[in-house]
Amino acid sequence: MRIEHLRERSDLGVISAGTLKSLGVSNPWRRCVPGGPWQRMYPGVVLLHNGPPTSDQHLTAALLRAGPGAAVTGAEACRRHGLPAKGPEIHLLIPGTAKGSGQLILERADPVPPATDVGGFPVVAAARAVVDACRFLRTQDEATALVAAAVQRNHCTVADLAAEARTNRYGTNLVRSVLKDLGRAESVAERDARRLSRKIRLTTQHWNATIAGPDGLVIGRPDAWYDDVGLAWEIDSRAFHLGPRDYERTLARNARYAAAGILVLQTLPTRLRDHPQAVARELKAAHAAAAARPRPPVHVVEVS
Domains plus CATH for the chain? Predict the structure, then answer.
C-alpha cells in the first residue's frame, strides 16, 4: 500500500502495528531499523517517518499504546492547560493494565477521572494534573511555582488541589507540604518575603490586603502592608504576575500609591532569593522612611 494511504489511516502519522498488518504491511518493524523510513514509538506503535516526532505525535503514540479510555495527566496535562510544568514524561491514567515504556507512565485509575478535550486530546482537570505532576518533582520551590501558577491563572483553587491531594495520597507528600506551607502566600517569592519579614522583626498581619483611601476607593492590594507607617511592599515577579498588559497595570498601581502618599518598595523575586540581606536592609530603610513622614489617611478594607 502506498505511504499516502497509510498516512490517511494514521493519526498525525502515528499508527498501530496491527493496523499496518491489516493493511498489508506484514513486518512493519523492518522499516523501523536505524536509517529506515519509519520509527518505533512504543511497543506496537509506529511513526511513519524517521524525523523527530512533535509533542502531539508523542502524545498520540502514548494514547494509542495506552488503549481506549486513557486520559492525560501530570506534567504533559499541565502544559496542555498552559502551565509551566517540568518533566519530559507523559503520564496517562488508564482503566485497565498496561506497561509503560521509557518516559511513558501508565497508571491504572478506577475510575479514570473525567477528561475534557484540550487541543484534540483527553486531558484531566488542572487540579488533578498539578497534583500528579508534583509527584515527580524533586524540590519544594518547583512544586510551589507550579501550584502558584495554576491558582493565579484561575485554572483551579487551593481547595481543589487540597481535595485532589487528599483523594490521591500516593506520592503527594510534596504537594501537601507545599499547600500547607504556602498558606495564603501566592508564590515562592511571597513565601520568602514572609520569612524575611519575620526574621528582621518587621512583622505584619496584612498580606494581600486591599487598601483604600478616605473616599473608599481602592488604591491597591500590596503583597505586604505595614499599616503602622503606611508602607507597601510589592514582590513584582514576572513569573507570577506579569502578563501582556500587567506592565501598564503596575505603572497605574504605582501612580495610585504615589497620589495617596503611600511609600512603596518593589523587590524582584530573584533579588529576594539571591540577596536577602540586601533586601532586608532596603526593607528596614523603607520602613524607617515611611515612619519619618505623616502616615497617609488610608486604611485596610479587606484581608484575604
Answer: 3-53 (no CATH), 65-182 (no CATH), 188-303 (3.40.960.10)
Give the DSSP H or E segment for 231. strand 231-235
Q: Residue 168: how many CB atoms within 10 A of its CB? A: 17
Q: Sheet holding 45-47: strands in order across?
A: 14-16, 45-47, 39-42
Instruction: Note the pTM of the prediction, 2 decimals.
Output: 0.67
CA triple 134-138-139, angle to 5 deg:
95
pLDDT digit string (tens) for the chain, length 304 residues: 678 888 899 999 999 999 999 999 989 999 999 999 999 999 999 999 999 999 999 999 999 999 999 999 999 999 999 998 988 789 999 997 766 666 899 999 989 999 999 999 999 999 999 999 999 998 888 998 899 889 878 899 888 999 999 987 788 999 998 888 765 545 677 788 988 999 999 878 898 899 999 999 999 999 899 999 999 999 875 444 444 456 777 888 999 999 999 999 999 888 888 899 999 999 999 999 999 999 999 999 965 4
What are the respective helix, strand and coil percentages of the chain, to the nearest 5?
45, 20, 35
